[in-house]
Design brief:
Elements (H helix, E strand, L loop, with lengths): L11 E5 L2 H6 L17 E8 L4 E8 L10 E4 L5 E2 L4 E8 L12 E6 L2 E7 L9 E8 L8 E8 L18 E9 L10 E4 L7 E2 L5 H4 L6 E5 L2 H6 L10 E2 L5 E8 L4 E11 L4 E2 L2 E2 L12 E2 L9 E5 L5 E5 L24 E8 L9 E7 L2
Parallel strand pairs: 5-11, 12-17, 19-24
Antiparallel strand pairs: 1-2, 2-3, 4-6, 6-9, 7-8, 7-10, 10-11, 13-15, 14-16, 16-17, 18-20, 21-22, 21-23, 23-24
């Protein structure tokens, strides 16, 4: 009827597949407004008649290939939905059956149970028969049900509307049914206790908990100082094998993760005052090696300690505490008082910690040698 729109509508118009039918006025096309051609090109005969006479003519219809793209999409990776963890979706946009390129910036929308969760777009023009891969990281709302439909739609502006005219407007979707996964909880972890190295600080090897956390070498184990960081997987402790506590006690959070999901747990770090380790030699020669009488676990641990050093003759030559630190072989009392190190020889110490856990004094000798 588009071809005959200019004919006077008072005339009777019919359409036929042959000239003979048109001349005879028989076998007219029943629904000329929705006619599907049977050959390409095809001649259509028209009969225009009124009560006085008729006329016959013809025109040609032809189907041509329209230069339009045809966008489709697929989700390519194994999807593991996990509560409180972002979801990564790898996808590919195709223009496999298009007869023109698919333009750059063609919008892509992702839905979870019909709720928009992410948007993206093609980066480049996609040639006929071509494709483009992409990836989005999607935060998942707690309102999404445990089982949901994950839907990817290419040529979707996020409101269900397309912006690109295509050969096929009904093949833009890819959907899969997903379920939130979980992993077994971490068993209760023991607290860690280490000797105070000063100011209630100690060095802890957090990784000794690993065997209790998981035996699967493919699992990822990380340690954090806050639960929020453990859940977000941010600011993990960089050197868990030599971690110095920030407070005493301190809670440490552990995150166990695999491809399915993650879980968290916690344990406590505490320090204790241990028996000091007292060396028996000192070489105050300025080489920074053993220049002071090394007593591990004393200074800034037992803040009220009292250390006395005696000569072989039993004369007190040094007395100090936490403020003085470790003895540097220079006397501060008695007949040897002078601003230089004592002579080579054997000296004796008496160390009182003034701590109820260690009521007895520590007594021993020190050998001074240059």
């Amino acid at each position: 009827t588009e071809a005959t729109a200019q004919i006077d509508p008072e005339n009777t118009i019919s359409y036929h597949l042959t000239e003979a039918d048109a001349q005879s006025g028989v076998n007219a096309i029943v629904d000329p407004e929705n006619y599907e051609n049977t050959s390409n090109p095809q001649t259509i005969w028209i009969r225009v008649a009124n009560p006085d006479c008729f006329v016959v003519d013809s025109f040609e219809i032809e189907v041509i290939i329209c230069p339009l793209p045809d966008a489709t999409i697929s989700i390519d990776n194994e999807i593991y939905a996990c509560r409180q963890r972002d979801l990564t979706i790898d996808y590919t946009v195709y223009n496999s059956k298009g007869t023109a390129f698919l333009p750059a910036s063609t919008p892509i929308a992702f839905y979870a149970d019909l709720t928009l969760i992410a948007q993206s777009a093609t980066l480049e023009d996609i040639a006929i028969g071509g494709s483009e891969m992409g990836s989005v990281t999607v935060p998942l709302s707690e309102e999404i049900p445990d089982i949901f439909i994950l839907l990817a739609v290419v040529d979707d502006d996020g409101n269900g509307m397309g912006i690109v005219e295509e050969l096929n407007e009904f093949n833009n979707e890819f959907e899969i049914v997903e379920e939130f996964g979980t992993i077994p909880p971490i068993p209760t972890l023991p607290d860690l206790l280490e000797c105070d190295e000063g100011f209630d600080i100690a060095t802890f090897d957090l990784t000794i908990q690993n065997e209790l956390i998981s035996s699967d070498p493919n699992d990822a184990i990380s340690f954090f100082t806050t639960l929020e960081n453990a859940i977000a997987n941010e600011n993990a402790i960089s050197d868990p094998e030599q971690y110095e506590n920030a407070t005493d006690p301190q809670i440490i959070y552990v995150r166990l993760e695999n491809e399915i999901c993650f879980t968290t747990a916690s344990f406590l770090l505490t320090t204790e005052n241990c028996q000091p380790i007292i060396s028996q030699g000192i070489s105050p020669n300025g080489d920074s090696l053993n220049d002071v009488h090394k007593i591990t676990g004393l200074v800034n641990v037992f803040e009220n300690f009292n250390l006395k050093i005696y000569s072989r003759e039993g004369n007190l030559i040094y007395e100090g505490g936490n403020d003085e630190g470790l003895w540097d072989a220079i006397p501060n009392t008695g007949w040897l008082v002078q601003n230089k190190v004592v002579p080579v020889g054997t000296y004796y110490y008496v160390l009182v910690l003034n701590d109820p856990e260690f009521p007895d004094p520590f007594i021993g000798f020190i050998y001074v040698n240059y």
